[in-house]
Amino acid sequence: MSDEDEIILAELNDDELVQQMHDDLYEGLKEEVVEGVEILLDRGWTPYDVLTKALVAGMTIVGIDFRDGILYVPEVLMAANSMKAGMAVLKPLLAETGAPKVGSMVIGTVKGDIHDIGKNLVSMMMEGAGFEVYDIGINNPVENYLEALEEHKPEILGMSALLTTTMPYMKVVVDTLVEKGMRDDYIILVGGAPLNEEFAENVGADAYCRDAAVAVETAKEWVAKMHNRRASA
Amino acid sequence: MKPNLIIGCGAIAQELVTIIKANGLQENLEVTALPAIWHNTPQKILPGLREKVTAAKASGKYQHIFIGYADCGTGGQLDRYIEDEGLQRIAGDHCYAFYAGQDRFAALFEEELGTFYLTDYLARHFERLIIQGYKLDTNPELLPMMFGHYTKLVYLAQVEDSELDRLARQAAEKLGGLSYERHLTGYGELGDFVREAAEASREL
Ligand code: B12
Predict the structure, then answer these.
(1) Which ranges constitute the DSSP H helices of chain A?
(2) Which residue puts its alpha carbon closest to atom 45 of ligand 1?
(3) Which residue of B has its CA nearest to A30?
(4) Could you report the predicted ipTM of this complex, rounded to two decimals?
């Protein structure tokens, strides 16, 4: 971009700035996104509003265009990097201002699999939606899941797999939870491109989520259901 | 007698043709390729394949049709389709496995999980498909997000070719200095698949 048509973020009104931040996020312009976050905070926006209206809303557009094949993996990674940089500014402030906590989740890619782009994206969007996320990384045997569940006591367990050979491991994890009488203590969400609803049902998960936006919606729905059930129990 | 047809992934098209020629099967077997880039969007494979199969059947030019794909991330959908249509595909999950052989691939995978695999095709097109495809040239900060968990590159070579060996070695370097191994696999189970596909017309 030439100097003449460079946009001065601070000169935009709030709506224009948020719109511009969505564009910057889409283009993966990390510095610009961070600058936008700081400007909105200076203007008295709550960290929570900046997070949801500027970052999460922008990333949702990226997610839709990825699903529709308009964007590919590198663009998504760049957008995610920008969002992460913006979130790094907001995180300490969110903790201070007591943003709403929706629930918590342990998430990890299953044993034998080191694909993690999708999982990382889900983690980020869940965090953006107000979930506490404990990401246990890649190549997780059932012991790792158990340990993390024990330690963090989340409502949700999330598992990711991208390989035909590793998908079935999800069943090993669910079966172990059943054996230990822990299955019903958790909402189990699974994802990864080659999975589908039928597969999720077969392994005994609660739901399959085809992308991060669906993951957030599904998680909110199930957590609300769980809390209602516990309240009435 | 009508020939058979393999409808397969563009990433193995050259190999299919080479095997057919080397075995003198040109009379028995033809090849049609679909875009190799669908590797990245496996949801496109089945619709594309279905169109080709329907057209090939309608043409009346072929005796039998074979599918030159492994599972390739179609999540069981490809299998359901070929079962419904009474077709056959190459066994296994992906090309790395059928070149190396299922057991040998499983052993390699077990030995070092953080391994990225190249075939002749991928070694030849590494720069375009991986470096440019994932924008690692213009955005090197993406490298750790893509390949941060990888420690090793294994080149599964179909043919002896020092230029491809050089390119594969260079690929390992570009992915952040991965350790490098080359295994000459030949065409592995793909060879058997092609010969079987060619045989099927002789039976009639
Ligand atoms: C990018 C990619 C890679 C990257 C991974 C980088 C990384 N850090 O993860 C690289 C290039 C390194 C790679 C390597 C390999 N890959 Co790969 N890879 C892909 C590809 C093209 C896209 C996956 C991806 O990241 N998508 C982007 C994200 C955003 O989408 P996603 O993962 O689907 O996640 C979304 C949803 O599924 C969901 N979701 C995901 N997880 C979860 C979890 C929960 C709890 C929830 C709620 C939701 C959810 O939300 C996410 C966000 O929207 C797929 C093809 C495909 N489209 O699936 C092949 C694919 C998965 N890979 C495949 C293969 C074979 C390999 C290799 C063996 C190839 C090689 N040359 O060595 C190696 C693996 C080696 C090893 N040791 O494991 C095959 C698997 C085939 C099979 N039958 O199993 C595929 C299907 C390609 C193909 N068509 O054959 N790969």
Answers:
(1) 14-26, 30-42, 47-49, 57-67, 73-97, 117-128, 142-152, 169-179, 197-203, 212-232
(2) A158
(3) B141
(4) 0.92
